[in-house]
């Protein structure tokens, strides 16, 4: 299948080039030339998530030669942890996406992208250097996904003093081909250094560079798999197709759900749960797309005022009426996030991370409005990742899952650099 830029259908590339490039050269985002449809009847209800992924994604890999033959092993490599669907209440389930190595849903996309790139790069004569600027959450998933992949090095840049100790540990515990650079500046400074490197032709003559950010189709496509996987499990549970409630920031996770439904999966209403960053709900209310300034909230991984994937959604639904029918969006305040976390244990016997709490609050609002479901609530991270927020609200410690506990015991190492391009360049070239 071909992929083209949201800004120009004439900018057309193969999947492998879309994955290698990340962003299209005209600044647009790559989208598949069309959304293929599948028959859910061809899928087993109880297949492993990796097998469902492999069947679902096959049409996107058609014509990719060796890469398409490797799709089953790529899916097995990326989805080597469970994605359980657990019952929350009558007619409501939680899709738990936090059982990967860094305990958040970004593990799925990052691991799939890494598994693809490793194979795409297999014949290359020089190493590929992946540059990632992170404000804390994404960098860990990317570092974990690329750790020990032959032919690939990773440089993770993060702002000194602005990530939590547990987050910092997940950025700096890898060693080997993963290099953690602690920048004496803020996240924007980290991002500036990475952007500068991509424009430095002299550097690019010496080092092959790539990125692994969330707009890559290599991260988006595999996210469809867990929607298909869970929808198939619920196939015989109710006459109504289940609605999905998805904690949403940059709209990557939510877009994958919209795509999975467009492919023919049995998914009903789709509701995006946002935090106080209201650009998407305001757009649906007014019809006017106005990105807003980002505001800081408790659900920090969703603090996005100008979500990049809106460009893909608007490309899929050029007509506003159709777009506004395709999904709903609700904004959840920090106060409601706090209350939802506090109530989680008494109401359901569960602990929520602040992001997942936005979906739970939205679900409770839907019940109050007389919409009984069936609902699937997407849980995007383990609460132990955000212990500084969750523990004071619950009044006790949150148990750390085994995979995360293992990482927290590893020794850490980072290189300190000033927010200065020459220092970054030197660090890059010294490896
Ligand atoms: C990234 C992230 C989100 C938001 O996902 P998007 O794809 O950016 O909408 C939600 N929750 C957690 C825990 C995240 O890390």
Biggest sheet features: 6 strands, mixed
State which percent range the strand residues make up. 15-25%
Task: Please report the distance between the alpha carbons of the first and last residues.
Answer: 37 Å
Helix content: 40-55%
Q: What gyration radius follows from the Cα positions, in whole Å?
A: 21 Å
- Count of alpha/pi helices: 19
Give the neighbour order of strands across the main sheet. Answer: 4-5-13-10-11-12
Cα shape: globular
How many strand units?
14
Q: Which molecules are bound besides the chains?
A: pyridoxal-5'-phosphate
Structural class: alpha/beta
The low-pLDDT segments are: none
What's the overall average pLDDT, rounded? 95
Quickly list its features.
alpha/beta; binds pyridoxal-5'-phosphate; 431 residues; single chain; 44% helix; 6-stranded mixed beta sheet
3D architecture notes:
The chain has 431 residues and is an alpha/beta fold. It is 44% helix and 16% strand. It is built from 19 helices and 14 strands. The protein has helices at 15-21, 49-61, 66-69, 71-78, 106-120, 137-146, 165-172, 187-198, 201-206, 217-233, 252-262, 279-286, 310-316, 320-326, 334-348, 354-368, 387-394, 402-409, 421-429; strands spanning 2-5, 8-14, 30-32, 85-89, 92-96, 128-133, 152-159, 178-183, 208-211, 243-247, 270-274, 328-331, 375-379, 415-417. The strands form three sheets. Strands 4-5-13-10-11-12 form a six-stranded mixed beta sheet, sandwiched between helices. Strands 9-6-7-8-14 form a five-stranded parallel beta sheet, with helices on both faces. It has a three-stranded antiparallel beta sheet with strand order 2-1-3. Helix 7 (165-172) links the parallel strand 7 and strand 8 (178-183). Helix 5 packs across helix 10 (217-233). 48% of the residues are buried. Bound molecules: pyridoxal-5'-phosphate. Residues 104, 106, 137, 247-254, 301-302, 355, 380-381 line the site of pyridoxal-5'-phosphate (PLP).
